[in-house]
Amino acid sequence: MSDNSLNNLPGGFKGMSHDMGSDQTAFKGAQWGKVMMWIFLLSDTFIFSCFLISYMKGRTSTVVDWPNTSEVFSLHVGGVPVPLLLIAIMTFVLITSSGTMALAVKYGYERNRKMCGWLILATAIGGLTFVGMQVFEWSKLIHEGVRPWENPFGAKQFGSFFFMITGFHGTHVSIGVIFLFIYARKVFRGDFDNAKRGFFTTMKSDYVAIEILGLYWHFVDLVWVFIFAFFYLW
Amino acid sequence: MDEIQKKKQATSTHKLGVYLWIWGLLFVLSFFSYLVDWFQFQGLLRHSLILIFMFLKAGLIMAFFMHLYWERYALVSVLLWPMTAVVGFIVLMAAEAKYTVFTRLLYFFIGG
Amino acid sequence: MSDEYNQKNTPLEAQSSETMTDISGTTSKDIDYVRPAELPEQDLYHGHSFITKWVFCQDAKVIGVQYFLTAVFTGIVGLVLSWLMRLQLGYPDLVPFITAEHYYQFVTMHGMIMVVYFLTALFLGGFGNYLIPLMVGARDMVFPYVNMVSFWMFFIAVCVLMASFFVPGGPTGAGWTLYPPQAILPGTPGSNMGIILMLASLSLFVIGFTMGGLNYIITILQARTRGMTLMRMPLTIWGIFTATALAMLAFPALLVSCIMMTLDKMLETSFFMPAIIQAGEVLDYGGGSPVLFQHLFWFFGHPEVYIVALPAFGIVSDLISVHARKNIFGYRMMVWAIVGIGGLSFFVWAHHMYVSGMNPWFGFFFATTTLIIAVPTALKVYNWIITLFRANIRMNTVMLFCLGFIVTFVNGGITGIFLGNVAVDIPLSDTYFVIAHFHMVMGVAPLMVIMGAVYHWFPLVTGRMLSEKLGKWHFWFTFLGAYSIYFPMHYLGFIGVPRRYFEMYDSPYVASATGMNEFITVAALIVGFAQFIFIYNIVTSLSIGKPAGKNPWKANSLEWLTPEVPPAHGNWGEKLPVIHRWPYDFNVPGAKEDYITQTTPPSEVMSAEVEKT
Q1: Inter-chain contacts counted by CB atoms under 8 A, chains A and C
Q2: Element spanning A132, H or E
Q3: How high does pLDDT run on average in chain C?
Q4: Which chains pack against A, by 3+ Cβ pairs within 8 A?
Q5: A212 vs chain B: nearest CA distance in angstroms?
Q6: Is residue B17 domain-shared with residue B39, that is, in the same domain?
Q7: Are C305 and C442 in contact (CB under 8 A)?
Q8: Is A89 on the interface with B (CB under 8 A)?
Q9: What domains sit in chain A, N to C, each tagged with a CATH number?
């Protein structure tokens, strides 16, 4: 369908019933890969929801005191403890990388190959920094005696949930970083301009892949927003 | 190829300013939620502030960075309706957690 | 949608501007108008070598058959395990190697295999892969490569599961629900390697299934052919689609509980583990919540029931419609019932946990939602029966299995109403009544559909018919045999025989239970062997079956309308089909034949009073 027909379709709720009632596609103008990433993220949302719900249940129902996260995660700057300093910096880094990713998607669609590639690379470096700081945070806590199976500051479950949830999120970030590097290389090589066929899937490359990658990266950021609120601040 | 490209430009690229604005807002909101901890608000105020900032941030990321604001409602509704199952799960598990801690306090400490 | 159709059917009245450009003057062309294609042709990878054509194949049809065969293989393992269990229950100590530990391992593996690796994989992986692209008019799944990886992940998951039979300690014996704390504590069979392999296998299954599920959902939503609206899809596709959507949202809970239990086992975290004293020794666990696992498990587990049931509902609707030569009664009602059951299934899970020690108010909430979900389910049963009412029924094997499904499903559904009410459930929980209930409703009933579906679609897959004579023998053995197995179990449950007991010893009800247990065991052995009639039928029909030709059942839906039978890679040859109607136009007044295929344009059947879809 040409771009006119997409703009000619009814919008809003009327558009919803029109799209759902029409033939061929239910999501007009959305590429298969993009829909796939959305549905996958929906599924992934349920994974993180289940983790956070378990955390809620564990934290609410424990009769041992939950550690004060504000103190546990504080850093000493010049001898003064600053609460959640590292977490604040990590949040800053992740949001920065999310912003560069959003711009990379924009420049990708504008076929600005150089700009897109550099921005993806910047995103990847932001992700790496985040993972690095998480490693630092983990080693600091482990140094203080927090383990998945025990916790000197209070409830055992604190350590378990901390390592599991941040670990699972960190895994998502790491996978994202790997793909960001792969796609940065692909962009610089010009795969998306020449519609080069993929090595595994043998399908043609397209700049929509950058948006799909961006969706994943923003999702990782989105999950961090929830973890930051529920695990560190609550 | 040209036509496809044109379509994408029409539907998916937006002014740079939009992204920069959202970016800035996210920083500001993150800073605010950090201040909640800095000033050590407690109780209902703390929790409601945390939730408000969290949902604002999540909403901004989804709406603009993930382009949901510009997507057609069909996709948006398919993505958001399943969240009712999560909400139901959260509400029920919150009730369950309260009950678990009640029985634990009852049997461990009071000795029901 | 119906408005659009009205417009097209009354060409002399107002036309949309789009249609006007397409008119070449004659009314017939005008009626047949279908929107132009939105998407370019799908880019397909054509395999050249044996390996890319049959092993690491990207054709959804081959992947479907691979899923089918792997699932049937695991299903046969599950069947043999059930024989061993029945032998022990009917004739204790007859088989020396069935010890209590082995018995529990058989129970666990039988349950897990049948629910997850057999039924789920068969319906969604097998039928889903084969039928979705054909029925919606796509050339293949939207991501053939991911689809191929999905099958091989499933295959690895099955291998890991089977490997647990051969590790020290054997497979886990914790029951298919894998409740902690007992699942990972010493004393439960297979509490070391067995449970770890089980959790690993489940996680692999979830990952593999997610890949497949994305394909099914997006093929149905985004790759339909011209004219194929959602409300013109066969109910089979609606059932598979909704079940896949449920799976995408329910399997995460299983994955999370698997991860957390693996950590509890391997790192001694205490997510699910309370403080425990074992043999006088205090273990390192403490403060965890076993009920949390049950909630997570059943948040997956109840949708899982519908993941198995909904494709069965959908497929049986199509089979009944084709073989009763009548349109399905209340198509839209059926669709909304499927979707409604799917949505509600996320709010009923704790009816499996009435005796678990959860918040007592939950019993009230979940009993209510459980009874609400019975409403759309009952609607579907009424609609099947009304479809059969005054229909031109062909009493062949397929129809027999459909009727068998309705009977067993109604039976299992009604006992479900018993168990959904807290006050009735409490005395009945963990008795054979529960066993009878869920085997009727999600064991026998979906199996009836699977068998009916195999008789129905075998000609499509292989080009040859299955033997009707053997099929009828197979049906009567299976149907009567299944009733002989599960009907007495209701009674066993009422007299209080508990489930998952290795032996009854000298319990007071042993006198009346013994004879019945022996009877059930004999019936189970006979039914099990009767399945070999089925396998024999399939194997021999592959070479000596009657050639089916095109569309042997005179069905309307797209899968029978491919240029080649069995369909080739890419399904549709040169041109994709164009759809003009729903797949249920049977015995339409005014039509020449008793069926109008989905691709028949309105201009060819001007006088027929077809449904407006």
Answers
A1: 141
A2: helix A113-143
A3: 90
A4: B, C
A5: 9
A6: yes
A7: yes
A8: no
A9: 1-30 (no CATH), 31-233 (1.20.120.80)
